[in-house]
Task: inverse folding
């Protein structure tokens, strides 16, 4: 079989994410080409590399170029047929539509990995991306959506017979180390919706009571400098740290040596429909978690018994963190076992095997 995976994530530079796992899985199932976009000055410049696993095509562009439905199609190699084209997000989906219309694919598969309009604050861009998403899904032969909450939204106006839940997963279950520090950890994009401003305020109050823990924040984003300033102003510079990005394998090691995983995302529209990879990866590493009582996150914590989900409030976060840091060894062990057992249901191998089976049945 011949597959084309299209993603707006720069596969060569970004941290390990869903398209990396999908590419690694598909490269053993047939011929795989991957087309990713990266932002640069050489607009339309194309690099084609064979990385030992699959052929990777990287097309440079500006953000505005991705709203032109012909931009990517005009820059991919001409000719060629793919049994299935798998598109992640609306920009990739526009290319999928073109390939289907020109008879260059048998199946147009859309991966509904986020509610993309909600990432943008301007109404014009929000509505433009929303209409792009809707058009892509109406044209798609199959849709794999990342969360139950997002599927419920899509079912309200898209043919539900072609929509399947395909959640984010974990690579493996990592046995937590015996000698761990009382470190509280967050990993992810530092944006408005990451919720770390309220976590920092709650932690500063907790630090007045509890003296052993430290808070480590891994990642980057537009809020990084603001969070550094907050740490100074809250007088917790010796207890809270912005660590920046680190390689994914190293991050998993950090989890296994930590005490609590934080997933207190701000309950805005984009968060309501998400399925955070960090949450299942915390669980797979045996980390008790604190998560926002919102969308799939609340269900995951409730079903698994891996931690505490609370409303997005400073006092609620402070009390939950205090409980998780000071709970008995027996309660901690129970949360660890519950989380690792539940995360075992979300192995990437099983998720992607199920996805491919559905794709093959439609060819």
Result:
């Amino acid at each position: 079989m011949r597959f084309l995976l299209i993603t707006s994530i720069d596969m060569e530079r970004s941290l390990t994410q869903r398209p990396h796992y999908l590419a690694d899985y598909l490269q053993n199932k047939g011929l795989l080409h991957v087309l990713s976009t990266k932002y640069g000055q050489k607009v339309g410049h194309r690099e084609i590399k064979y990385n030992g696993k699959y052929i990777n095509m990287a097309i440079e562009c500006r953000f505005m170029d991705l709203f032109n439905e012909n931009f990517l199609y005009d820059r991919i190699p001409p000719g060629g047929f793919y049994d299935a084209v798998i598109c992640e997000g609306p920009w990739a989906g526009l290319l999928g539509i073109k390939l289907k219309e020109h008879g260059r694919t048998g199946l147009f598969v859309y991966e509904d990995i986020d509610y993309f309009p909600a990432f943008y604050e301007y109404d014009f861009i929000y509505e433009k991306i929303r209409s792009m998403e809707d058009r892509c899904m109406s044209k798609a032969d199959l849709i794999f959506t990342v969360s139950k909450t997002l599927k419920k939204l899509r079912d309200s106006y898209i043919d539900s017979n072609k929509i399947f839940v395909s959640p984010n997963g974990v690579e493996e279950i990592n046995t937590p180390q015996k000698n761990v520090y009382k470190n509280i950890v967050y990993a992810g994009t530092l944006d408005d919706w990451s919720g770390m401003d309220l976590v920092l305020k709650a932690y500063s109050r907790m630090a007045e009571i509890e003296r052993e823990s430290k808070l480590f924040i891994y990642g980057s984003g537009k809020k990084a400098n603001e969070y550094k300033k907050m740490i100074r102003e809250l007088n917790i510079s010796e207890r809270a740290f912005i660590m920046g990005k680190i390689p994914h394998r190293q991050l998993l090691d950090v989890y296994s040596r930590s005490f609590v995983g934080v997933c207190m995302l701000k309950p805005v529209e984009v968060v309501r429909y998400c399925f955070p990879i960090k949450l299942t990866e915390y669980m797979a590493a045996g980390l008790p978690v604190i998560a926002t009582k919102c969308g799939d996150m609340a269900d995951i914590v409730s079903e698994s018994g891996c931690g505490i989900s609370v409303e997005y409030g400073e006092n609620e976060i402070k009390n939950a963190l205090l409980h998780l840091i000071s709970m008995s060894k027996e309660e901690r062990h129970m949360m660890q076992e519950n989380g690792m057992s539940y995360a075992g249901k979300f192995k990437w191998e099983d998720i992607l095997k199920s996805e491919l089976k559905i794709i093959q049945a439609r060819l």
Notes: The mean pLDDT is 93. DSSP finds 13 helices and 14 strands in the chain. The radius of gyration is 21 Å. The longest strand covers residues 31-39.
